Amino acid sequence: MKKLTISMFMIFVICIINTVNVFAADATAELIVDKTTVKAGDTVTVILNAKCESGLSAVITGIEYDKEVLTLQTTKVAENWVNYGVDKYEILSNSTEKVTSLNVITLTFKVSDNAQDGTTKISTTGIEITDINNKEYTLAKSEKVLTIGNPKENPTPSEPEENPTQVSLTNIKITKAPTKTTYTEGEKFDKTGMVVTAEYSDGTSKEITNYTYTPSGALKATERKVTISYTEGEVTKTVAQDIKVINVPENNAEDNKEDTKDDSVQPEKEIPKAGVEKNIIFVIGVVLIVTIASYLGYKKYKNI
């Protein structure tokens, strides 16, 4: 008799345990997060999803989190459900339809701007679910862990690129012409005042001074431009600066030599041509008069 009693008691206990397991299996609840890795300033959405095969009527729970790391911004319950809770969520259905699975409540949190790297938890307290037959289910809490990485405070060094993009010289240009662009043949090019700018493949530019130019010696009258060259890396670029070279005629040089003669050397005086001509006429006149006088005297002498 005693053994029979013990056996019946054991069967009763097993039935109760099985009944509890069936009840527990009939209702479940868990937290769902839209991201598990966050950084300072991020927003995280947390949803409490509840399920009950016989139909949901009410869900009661609380939400626990570190208020120094997370700030609750918005709370939204499912449509046709109302939250009557103050210290915790007591969400009851106003719907006449049978609902077996539902996102009962949606919470939005912001990660503090000063949050440090590490982890933080969001969890429920014990969850109580009531079905449409007023049967109650008590469930264990649900928990989610968020990993916080804060690049503002402790940036993670990125691995260097295997083939980083090389910045190369693409062009040079004269952004300001030299002060002097007109020369006399024999002078040399003067770069004073000239500004040369180098341009690169990444869109940047800078003024350069370590360029070369040709011709660098005495300029000829045939020169019309000076070529500027600049090399960086293995790239060489050139640009031309227009110039004007004035030729110096040789006769101008001789004239200049004559102008340099010593003024102290006086040239010999020349007899004016007009005076010479007058003297010649005078002599001819005298000769002619003498000849005529002699002829007349000769005739008179001969009584001709």
What's a concise summary of this model?
The chain is built from three helices and 21 strands. It has helices at 2-26, 250-259, 273-301; strands spanning 27-33, 37-38, 43-52, 56-61, 63-65, 70-77, 81-83, 89-93, 101-111, 118-124, 127-131, 136-139, 143-148, 169-176, 182-184, 195-200, 205-208, 212-214, 225-232, 235-242, 244-246.
Explain the overall architecture.
The protein is α+β, with helices and mostly antiparallel strands and 304 residues long. Among the domains are: 28-148, Immunoglobulin-like (Sandwich); 169-246, Immunoglobulin-like, CATH 2.60.40. It is 21% helix and 39% strand. It is built from three helices and 21 strands. It has helices spanning 2-26, 250-259, 273-301, and strands at 27-33, 37-38, 43-52, 56-61, 63-65, 70-77, 81-83, 89-93, 101-111, 118-124, 127-131, 136-139, 143-148, 169-176, 182-184, 195-200, 205-208, 212-214, 225-232, 235-242, 244-246. Strands 7-8-4-11-12 form a five-stranded antiparallel β-sheet, with no helix packed on it. The longest helix is centred in the last third of the chain and has 29 residues, at 273-301. It starts with a helix and ends with a helix.
